[in-house]
Amino acid sequence: MTAVQEGQELFLVRVERGGPWDWSKSMREQEQWTEHAHFMNGLVDDGLILLGGPVEGGREAFHVVEAPSEEALRARFAEDPWARNGMLAVTSVERWTILLAPEN
Fold first, then answer.
1. Is a pLDDT exceeding 60 seen at residue 1?
2. What angle do CA 66, 69, 71 make, to 5 degrees?
3. Who's near 100: CB < 8 A, 6+ residues apart?
4. Which end of the chain is flanked by fewer CB atoms within 10 Å, N or C?
5. Torsion-angle region of residue 32: left (phi > 0), alpha (psi -120 to 50) or beta?
6. CA atoms of 103 and 45, how far apart (whole Å)
7. Contact 15, 60 (CB under 8 A)
């Protein structure tokens, strides 16, 4: 993992599925999958999400996020089509300090 950019902090972000989520369908079969996937790929392209994805067998996903503040990352996550329709909600945001990482 690369060093955190100046003016940025690392966060662990937990999101949970719910609301109109159709539990009889896979993630990729959910309404607005294409729009959600495009949005999330944009967060990766913008350098906001460094790592992320769903936890197997559960309702949650975790993301390692680099952002200037918790407020800024919450604002970006709120733009997700699945956040707007209630299918995903941010349930926790925690600042994270990396002490162990391979040398570059």
1. no
2. 120
3. none
4. C
5. left
6. 24
7. yes
Place of tokens 């009889």: 24
Q: Model-level pTM greater than 0.85?
A: yes
CB-side neighbour CA atoms (13 Å) of 34 = 0
Residue 87 burial (10 A CB sphere; 0-12, 13-18, 19+): buried
Q: What is the pLDDT of residue 2?
A: 56
**Edge to edge, what strands does the sheet with 88-95 contain?**
49-54, 60-67, 9-17, 88-95
Q: Cα dist. 43→26, 60, 72, 80, 100 in Å?
A: 22, 18, 12, 10, 25
